[in-house]
Write a structure and sequence with these properties.
The protein has 242 residues and is of the alpha/beta class. It has 10 helices and 5 strands, in the order αααβαβαβαββαααα. Helix 5 (102-116) links the parallel strand 2 (84-91) and strand 3 (123-128). The model is unreliable at 1-27 and 37-49 (pLDDT under 50).
Protein backbone atom coordinates (compact mmCIF):
# COMPACT_ATOMS: atom_id res chain seq x y z
CA UNK A 1 0.00 0.00 0.00
CA UNK A 2 1.42 3.43 -0.92
CA UNK A 3 1.80 6.07 1.78
CA UNK A 4 -0.54 8.95 1.15
CA UNK A 5 -0.36 12.42 2.76
CA UNK A 6 -3.19 11.39 5.07
CA UNK A 7 -1.30 8.34 6.34
CA UNK A 8 1.94 10.32 6.73
CA UNK A 9 0.09 12.90 8.78
CA UNK A 10 -1.27 10.34 11.24
CA UNK A 11 1.99 8.46 11.80
CA UNK A 12 3.30 10.98 14.40
CA UNK A 13 0.04 10.55 16.28
CA UNK A 14 0.60 6.81 16.50
CA UNK A 15 4.06 7.44 17.98
CA UNK A 16 2.51 9.61 20.66
CA UNK A 17 0.01 6.86 21.37
CA UNK A 18 2.84 4.36 21.83
CA UNK A 19 4.44 6.59 24.42
CA UNK A 20 1.22 6.80 26.40
CA UNK A 21 0.09 3.12 26.25
CA UNK A 22 1.76 -0.25 26.83
CA UNK A 23 3.07 -2.24 23.88
CA UNK A 24 0.00 -4.45 23.66
CA UNK A 25 -2.31 -1.46 23.32
CA UNK A 26 -0.05 0.46 20.93
CA UNK A 27 -0.51 -2.06 18.10
CA UNK A 28 -4.25 -1.87 18.49
CA UNK A 29 -4.05 1.93 18.40
CA UNK A 30 -1.90 1.75 15.26
CA UNK A 31 -4.45 -0.39 13.43
CA UNK A 32 -7.27 1.88 14.55
CA UNK A 33 -5.47 4.95 13.20
CA UNK A 34 -4.76 3.21 9.88
CA UNK A 35 -8.40 2.21 9.53
CA UNK A 36 -9.47 5.77 10.29
CA UNK A 37 -6.95 7.18 7.81
CA UNK A 38 -8.16 4.84 5.05
CA UNK A 39 -11.68 6.10 5.53
CA UNK A 40 -10.52 9.55 4.34
CA UNK A 41 -9.03 8.17 1.11
CA UNK A 42 -11.51 8.46 -1.81
CA UNK A 43 -12.59 5.25 -3.48
CA UNK A 44 -10.87 5.45 -6.86
CA UNK A 45 -12.83 2.50 -8.27
CA UNK A 46 -16.23 4.11 -7.82
CA UNK A 47 -15.26 7.57 -9.05
CA UNK A 48 -15.05 6.70 -12.80
CA UNK A 49 -18.44 4.98 -12.71
CA UNK A 50 -20.05 8.01 -11.08
CA UNK A 51 -18.43 10.37 -13.57
CA UNK A 52 -19.46 8.18 -16.50
CA UNK A 53 -23.04 8.00 -15.26
CA UNK A 54 -23.23 11.80 -14.93
CA UNK A 55 -21.75 12.33 -18.38
CA UNK A 56 -24.13 9.76 -19.84
CA UNK A 57 -27.22 11.34 -18.28
CA UNK A 58 -26.35 14.77 -19.71
CA UNK A 59 -25.60 13.41 -23.18
CA UNK A 60 -28.46 10.93 -23.64
CA UNK A 61 -32.05 11.77 -24.56
CA UNK A 62 -34.71 9.85 -22.66
CA UNK A 63 -37.42 8.68 -25.05
CA UNK A 64 -41.06 8.29 -24.05
CA UNK A 65 -44.26 7.34 -25.85
CA UNK A 66 -45.07 11.05 -26.06
CA UNK A 67 -41.79 12.50 -27.36
CA UNK A 68 -40.13 9.85 -29.53
CA UNK A 69 -41.67 11.01 -32.80
CA UNK A 70 -40.62 14.62 -32.23
CA UNK A 71 -37.11 13.68 -31.05
CA UNK A 72 -36.28 11.13 -33.72
CA UNK A 73 -36.40 13.34 -36.75
CA UNK A 74 -33.53 15.00 -38.61
CA UNK A 75 -32.46 18.26 -37.05
CA UNK A 76 -33.24 21.38 -39.03
CA UNK A 77 -30.45 23.38 -37.35
CA UNK A 78 -27.58 21.09 -38.34
CA UNK A 79 -26.33 20.62 -41.85
CA UNK A 80 -26.06 16.91 -42.60
CA UNK A 81 -24.56 15.64 -45.79
CA UNK A 82 -26.03 12.21 -45.12
CA UNK A 83 -28.39 10.47 -42.71
CA UNK A 84 -28.47 11.52 -39.07
CA UNK A 85 -27.41 8.54 -36.93
CA UNK A 86 -28.80 7.59 -33.52
CA UNK A 87 -27.83 4.87 -31.06
CA UNK A 88 -30.79 4.04 -28.83
CA UNK A 89 -30.18 1.86 -25.77
CA UNK A 90 -33.13 -0.34 -24.80
CA UNK A 91 -32.91 -1.29 -21.13
CA UNK A 92 -35.17 -2.29 -18.27
CA UNK A 93 -35.42 -3.33 -14.65
CA UNK A 94 -36.89 -6.23 -12.75
CA UNK A 95 -40.04 -6.44 -14.87
CA UNK A 96 -38.65 -6.42 -18.39
CA UNK A 97 -34.99 -7.38 -17.89
CA UNK A 98 -35.48 -9.60 -14.83
CA UNK A 99 -32.89 -7.57 -12.92
CA UNK A 100 -30.06 -8.57 -15.28
CA UNK A 101 -29.40 -5.26 -17.04
CA UNK A 102 -27.19 -3.69 -14.36
CA UNK A 103 -23.91 -4.64 -16.02
CA UNK A 104 -25.09 -3.54 -19.45
CA UNK A 105 -26.26 -0.23 -17.96
CA UNK A 106 -22.76 0.42 -16.59
CA UNK A 107 -21.20 -0.45 -19.95
CA UNK A 108 -23.62 1.93 -21.70
CA UNK A 109 -22.83 4.75 -19.25
CA UNK A 110 -19.10 4.40 -19.90
CA UNK A 111 -19.58 4.10 -23.65
CA UNK A 112 -21.86 7.12 -23.88
CA UNK A 113 -19.31 9.19 -21.96
CA UNK A 114 -16.61 8.13 -24.45
CA UNK A 115 -18.84 8.81 -27.44
CA UNK A 116 -19.67 12.26 -26.08
CA UNK A 117 -16.02 13.24 -26.64
CA UNK A 118 -16.18 12.20 -30.30
CA UNK A 119 -17.64 14.94 -32.53
CA UNK A 120 -18.48 12.36 -35.21
CA UNK A 121 -20.45 10.10 -32.87
CA UNK A 122 -24.17 9.47 -33.37
CA UNK A 123 -26.78 11.02 -31.17
CA UNK A 124 -27.68 8.93 -28.13
CA UNK A 125 -31.04 8.01 -26.64
CA UNK A 126 -32.37 5.69 -23.95
CA UNK A 127 -35.57 3.75 -23.34
CA UNK A 128 -36.36 2.02 -20.05
CA UNK A 129 -39.03 -0.59 -20.82
CA UNK A 130 -40.02 -0.77 -17.14
CA UNK A 131 -40.92 2.92 -17.23
CA UNK A 132 -42.04 3.07 -20.88
CA UNK A 133 -43.80 -0.26 -21.48
CA UNK A 134 -46.17 1.18 -24.08
CA UNK A 135 -43.30 2.58 -26.15
CA UNK A 136 -41.49 -0.77 -26.05
CA UNK A 137 -44.73 -2.41 -27.18
CA UNK A 138 -45.10 0.12 -30.00
CA UNK A 139 -41.59 -0.69 -31.14
CA UNK A 140 -42.08 -4.42 -30.45
CA UNK A 141 -38.76 -4.51 -28.62
CA UNK A 142 -37.29 -5.41 -25.27
CA UNK A 143 -34.02 -5.17 -23.35
CA UNK A 144 -31.15 -5.29 -23.64
CA UNK A 145 -30.61 -4.01 -27.18
CA UNK A 146 -29.21 -1.09 -29.10
CA UNK A 147 -31.13 0.25 -32.06
CA UNK A 148 -28.92 1.93 -34.63
CA UNK A 149 -31.18 4.31 -36.53
CA UNK A 150 -30.25 6.43 -39.54
CA UNK A 151 -32.76 9.21 -40.15
CA UNK A 152 -32.69 10.40 -43.77
CA UNK A 153 -32.40 14.00 -44.83
CA UNK A 154 -35.28 15.32 -46.95
CA UNK A 155 -34.43 15.66 -50.63
CA UNK A 156 -34.79 18.77 -52.74
CA UNK A 157 -38.16 17.51 -54.01
CA UNK A 158 -39.35 17.20 -50.37
CA UNK A 159 -39.35 13.40 -50.57
CA UNK A 160 -37.83 11.49 -47.65
CA UNK A 161 -35.96 8.20 -48.10
CA UNK A 162 -36.62 5.28 -45.80
CA UNK A 163 -35.26 5.29 -42.24
CA UNK A 164 -32.65 2.56 -41.74
CA UNK A 165 -32.94 0.52 -38.55
CA UNK A 166 -30.52 -2.15 -37.34
CA UNK A 167 -31.03 -3.95 -34.03
CA UNK A 168 -28.02 -5.13 -32.03
CA UNK A 169 -28.67 -7.56 -29.17
CA UNK A 170 -26.52 -7.22 -26.03
CA UNK A 171 -25.32 -9.95 -23.69
CA UNK A 172 -26.24 -9.18 -20.09
CA UNK A 173 -23.02 -10.68 -18.71
CA UNK A 174 -20.28 -10.04 -21.28
CA UNK A 175 -21.12 -6.73 -22.97
CA UNK A 176 -18.39 -4.10 -22.48
CA UNK A 177 -18.18 -0.37 -23.11
CA UNK A 178 -15.63 -1.02 -25.87
CA UNK A 179 -18.08 -3.25 -27.73
CA UNK A 180 -20.74 -0.56 -27.54
CA UNK A 181 -18.40 2.19 -28.76
CA UNK A 182 -17.26 -0.03 -31.64
CA UNK A 183 -20.82 0.00 -32.97
CA UNK A 184 -19.87 3.50 -34.10
CA UNK A 185 -16.06 3.53 -34.32
CA UNK A 186 -15.77 0.25 -36.24
CA UNK A 187 -19.27 0.39 -37.75
CA UNK A 188 -20.11 -3.05 -36.38
CA UNK A 189 -23.79 -2.22 -36.82
CA UNK A 190 -23.28 -2.96 -40.50
CA UNK A 191 -22.93 -6.65 -39.57
CA UNK A 192 -26.63 -6.67 -38.69
CA UNK A 193 -29.36 -6.82 -41.34
CA UNK A 194 -31.59 -3.84 -41.97
CA UNK A 195 -34.95 -4.30 -40.29
CA UNK A 196 -37.79 -4.06 -42.78
CA UNK A 197 -40.68 -5.72 -40.94
CA UNK A 198 -44.29 -4.61 -40.74
CA UNK A 199 -43.70 -3.20 -37.24
CA UNK A 200 -40.89 -0.91 -38.39
CA UNK A 201 -41.75 2.21 -36.32
CA UNK A 202 -40.89 4.60 -39.15
CA UNK A 203 -41.59 2.85 -42.46
CA UNK A 204 -43.60 -0.31 -41.71
CA UNK A 205 -47.08 -0.55 -43.18
CA UNK A 206 -48.55 -0.57 -39.66
CA UNK A 207 -47.00 2.87 -39.04
CA UNK A 208 -47.99 4.14 -42.48
CA UNK A 209 -51.65 3.36 -41.79
CA UNK A 210 -51.51 5.02 -38.36
CA UNK A 211 -52.03 1.74 -36.51
CA UNK A 212 -48.70 1.59 -34.66
CA UNK A 213 -49.80 3.29 -31.45
CA UNK A 214 -53.17 1.45 -31.16
CA UNK A 215 -51.38 -1.85 -31.78
CA UNK A 216 -48.77 -0.94 -29.16
CA UNK A 217 -51.45 -0.32 -26.55
CA UNK A 218 -53.15 -3.58 -27.50
CA UNK A 219 -49.94 -5.56 -27.13
CA UNK A 220 -49.28 -3.85 -23.81
CA UNK A 221 -52.72 -4.77 -22.49
CA UNK A 222 -52.26 -8.38 -23.58
CA UNK A 223 -48.95 -8.42 -21.73
CA UNK A 224 -50.34 -7.16 -18.41
CA UNK A 225 -53.57 -9.18 -18.36
CA UNK A 226 -52.97 -12.53 -16.61
CA UNK A 227 -53.49 -15.70 -18.62
CA UNK A 228 -56.25 -16.96 -16.35
CA UNK A 229 -58.32 -13.86 -17.18
CA UNK A 230 -58.09 -14.73 -20.87
CA UNK A 231 -59.22 -18.28 -20.15
CA UNK A 232 -62.26 -17.00 -18.24
CA UNK A 233 -63.08 -14.56 -21.03
CA UNK A 234 -62.82 -17.25 -23.71
CA UNK A 235 -64.96 -19.58 -21.63
CA UNK A 236 -67.67 -16.95 -21.16
CA UNK A 237 -67.52 -16.02 -24.84
CA UNK A 238 -67.91 -19.63 -25.96
CA UNK A 239 -70.85 -20.24 -23.62
CA UNK A 240 -72.65 -17.11 -24.75
CA UNK A 241 -72.27 -17.58 -28.50
CA UNK A 242 -72.31 -21.37 -28.77
Amino acid sequence: MRLTPVLIAVLPLTVTAEQQKPLGGSLQTLFEWFDKAKSYIPNAASAPLSTAAKAASSNVVSLTKDNWKSVLKPSTSDQFEGPESWMIFISGGNKTCYGKCGGVEQAWNKASALLAADPSSPRLAYINCDKQPVLCSIWATGPPKIWHVQLPVAQADQSTPATTVRIIGLNTTTTTAIEITQIHTKRTYENKPVYEGALHPFNGWVAQYGLLTPLGYTLYLFAIVPSWAFMIGISMFSRYFM
